[in-house]
Amino acid sequence: MNNLDYDVVIVGGGPAGLTAGLYSSRAGLNSLLIERGLVGGQIVNAELVENYPGFPEGISGYELGQVMHRQATKYGLKTLLTEVTGIELQETQKVIKTTEGSFTTRAVIIAGGSERQKLGVPGEEKFTGKGVSYCATCDAAFFREKPVAIVGGGNAAITEALHLVKFASRVTVIHRRNQLRATRILQERAFSEPVIEFLWDSTVEEIEGEDFVKRLRINHVPTGNKSSLEVAGVFISIGFKPDTAYLKDILPLDAVGHIITNEKMETEVPGIYAAGDIRYNSGRQAVTAAGDGATAAIYAEKFLAEK
Ligand SMILES: Cc1cc2nc3c(=O)[nH]c(=O)nc-3n(C[C@H](O)[C@H](O)[C@H](O)COP(=O)(O)OP(=O)(O)OC[C@H]3O[C@@H](n4cnc5c(N)ncnc54)[C@H](O)[C@@H]3O)c2cc1C
Active-site residues: which are they? Predict the structure, then answer.
């Protein structure tokens, strides 16, 4: 087809990148996946994934990443463990720059994910996966009939609070301001939900517990008064941080840095696609990321065939 190093280069080895790799390699395209950390992406942090289709008993996130990689590798996907630091657009090709050298390709699928922002308080790291969660859709079911808190006041936080009420005995929304940033309709739903309580003008100073989270130390910002809140879990929903600084000169990004695509996962640059959590308005689930990855690879294949 050409004398470039690859037909498709995929940046990121999470569910989006691995599925893109499965589809592109199975379509006979010479495909390289580049991952700077652990193959599997963020899902490797999930102890038990209960909402990925095909695994009725659930599957550990680590194992899910491993089997996805095995499946893609079976069809010829190559994997390189290094970091992509830049993409240079040339007339008929893209040059992928990494810490291990550069590669030429015609199509690129960017699937670098988006990390949840941390609170940065004592106890947060220690209790992650032991009561501290960054994803209510993923973990709410582990807190049936238990009191939980959610930190944040935007659309994501309130949507997650409304999801949590189906499981938890009490949901306390802790917000550093005295009003929510979420849309009016979400606010109305949250205010009319008897299980949801609000702690306004408040921040979490520390997360305490033994093996699991037991309580939060709360600071009331205007007065400086300290209090504690007994909870079995705390969901942190204060935003996401995609690592896309290296793309800002070549692709349109939203205010936070997520990549804007159409429904074909195409960006504004022909031959560059984005898939998974790194996309603006992504579903932020393994299965939605996988779906995006498949879509991106299908349209990348069409793009290459038309060339
Ligand atoms: C603790 C936890 C539990 C979760 N539980 C569930 C669950 O039960 N069910 C569910 O559906 N979802 C769950 N999720 C969410 C799910 O993991 C994500 O939605 C999904 O992994 C997103 O996939 P992705 O491929 O878009 O990105 P990611 O999984 O984030 O993968 C992106 C990869 O790209 C790599 N990367 C980024 N930039 C570069 C670069 N410049 N060069 C090279 N590599 C790069 C990163 O190292 C990373 O491995 C959970 C998330 C967490 C954190």
Answer: 135, 138-139
